[in-house]
User: What shape does this take?
Amino acid sequence: MNKGFTLIELLGVLAILAILAVITVPLIQGLIEGGLDDSKTVQEESFEKAAESWAGSNAFSLPENKNDYTTVSLKKLIDDGFLETNSDGNITIGGSDETYNLNKACVKITNEGTSTQANYKYEFSENCN
Assistant: This one.
């Protein structure tokens, strides 16, 4: 008696594997993309925190009147020691191969308070020019 699987059994297993692949591959891709989006959000929050630290050392550069704003580029944050770059001198976007334009990307610092009681809002933008 021969041992082994018949052609029909092998085709059945392949069909089941194909169905599983069709279901799981899009789910895994969605999880990866969601993780990259989360990584980018955390990264942008770190830019805003770096700008807050920069503002603490550069209070004279902050807007005094309500709704006035100033911007600080990522390059300025790097030059002043508030952000670090990769070994190639860039910052990649959320774990991808793309990089931020360090001269265009910035944090906008807006005074939402008054001249006597400042309340600053920090908001990252990829293109401040």
